[in-house]
Amino acid sequence: MSAPSVTPSKAASPRHSPPPAAEPVPGGGRFAKSLRRNLTAHGFLIGAVLCFAFFSWYPMVRQFLLAFQKTESGRSTWVGFDNLVTVVNDPAFWQAWRNTLLFTVLALVFGFAVPFLVALVINEFHHGQGYLRLLVYLPVMLPPVASVLLFKYLYDPGYGLLNELLRFLHLPEQQWLQDPDLSMLSVVIASTWMNMGGAALIYLAALQSIPGELYEAAELDGAGLFRKIWHVTIPQTRLILSLMLLMQIIATMQVFVEPFLLTGGAGPEGSTTTVVHLIYQYAFNFNNYGAAAALGLLLLVLLAGFSAAYVKLSRAEDE
């Protein structure tokens, strides 16, 4: 009897064996796939970063270098701290700092307190809040030049509305922008009206987030209006108030548009000359870009130090 023949199966044939699996590349495939999927987003992000670097970072680096250089006939030479010495020895330097600090203090008295009071009043209205918010924010939407020209008309000593009102009340007329004692106050009033709308809406949003149960509990304890504001409203909005205080100090220390358009920048007897206006004079009137950059660097260091101190104190309070 012959032995049965065994036919090899196709699965056992080496010619039909499956190819070996390729070893996965750890992380490489996922990264390439994610990159292809987000290529458009990365393109927009790179464009934004380049624009920000060109229009923000490069000017800051350039200003830092100019503070230690002197430019003549298109050539820059290193002069060390000579520009800082020149700026500090300028008599207008200390006057500009005094005027800037005075503007900051007056702006905090008016520009910090008034928007908060306006927000408190609007918050008490249960109807028509949308129209009131629009009315308060309307000055912010106006071009700054138009707003300043409006106040320049109001302050005019001849036909200005304010002096017309004083004449109607049989009160002495005032030289609002020509009097050194009144010029800075006039600038602060105009600046407060122009910029208080945004702050008032931020305060209003913070007030509307306070739970009503807190006010009800305060009323049960016999608290009046002022005690509710002091013990409920201010503690609940402390974070927003402190943040707006920091932002307003930084903004007012860099004031330029209002005094420049209302009083020509310097004002009577230099009463409205600010630090930023002095930087403008160094750069565009005296063509001393090194001194302008040095003064700008001093202002940057001051504001950065103030911001760092604020952050440190805030962290200490939270701990």
* Rough outline: globular
What's the average pLDDT? 83
Radius of gyration: 32 Å
Order of adjacent strands in the largest pleated sheet: 1-2
Largest sheet: 2 strands, antiparallel
* Low-confidence sequence ranges: 1-14
Give the structural class.
mainly alpha
Can you give the helix content as a percent range?
Answer: 55-70%
Alpha-carbon distance between the two ends: 99 Å
List how many beta strands DSSP finds: 2
- Percent of residues in β-strands: under 5%
N-to-C order of helices and strands: HHEEHHHHHHHHHHHH
Please report the number of helical segments. 14
Give your account of this protein's structure:
The structure is a single chain. By secondary structure, the chain is mainly α. 69% of the residues lie in helices and 3% in strands. It is built from 14 helices and 2 strands, in the order ααββαααααααααααα. The chain has helices at residues 28-37, 39-66, 82-88, 91-123, 129-141, 144-154, 161-168, 183-208, 212-220, 225-236, 238-252, 257-263, 275-285, 289-318, and strands spanning 69-72, 75-78. The protein has a two-stranded antiparallel sheet. A hairpin with a 2-residue loop joins strand 1 and strand 2. Helix 3 packs across helix 14 (289-318). The protein is globular and about 70 Å long. The N and C termini lie far apart (99 Å).
